[in-house]
Amino acid sequence: MQAKRHDPKNVPLSPEAAEEIAVAILGWLATEPDMLQRFLALSGLEAGQLRHAVTDNGFLAGMIDFVMAHEPTLVAFCDATGTKPETVAAAARHYTKPALDSGQS
């Protein structure tokens, strides 16, 4: 039986660190008006709803998914904030529920 290798790209983030990534994404979106408008259009939210939405884990997950779904957006966020793409991916995994067939609970 082969030993399970440690993959540094799959290291989980603490809940606090994942939330910090989500907040950093929101801060970055605030400096990118075109990107913010795109996010708002896709999410169905209005700008005035953002303040209340940030308390919802589903919203945080959606914001991270928005960045992860488009590589140029992910690269732009990472370049602007000095964040590694692997860290954003770990934050996404934190907010993603395991699939029914994943074997995770």
Which sheet architecture does the biggest sheet show?
A: none
Based on CA atoms alone, the radius of gyration comes out at: 15 Å
Number of helical segments with 4 or more residues: 6
- Which shape, going by the Cα principal axes? globular
End-to-end C-alpha gap:
24 Å
Structural class based on helices, strands and sheet pairing: mainly alpha
Number of strands: 0
How much strand content do the residues show?
under 5%
Which stretches are poorly predicted, pLDDT < 50 over at least 5 residues? 1-6
The proportion of residues forming helix, as a percent range, comes to 55-70%
Overall pLDDT level: 86
What is the element string, with H for helices and E for strands? HHHHHH
Pfam family, one: DUF3572
Protein name: DUF3572 domain-containing protein
InterPro entries: DUF3572
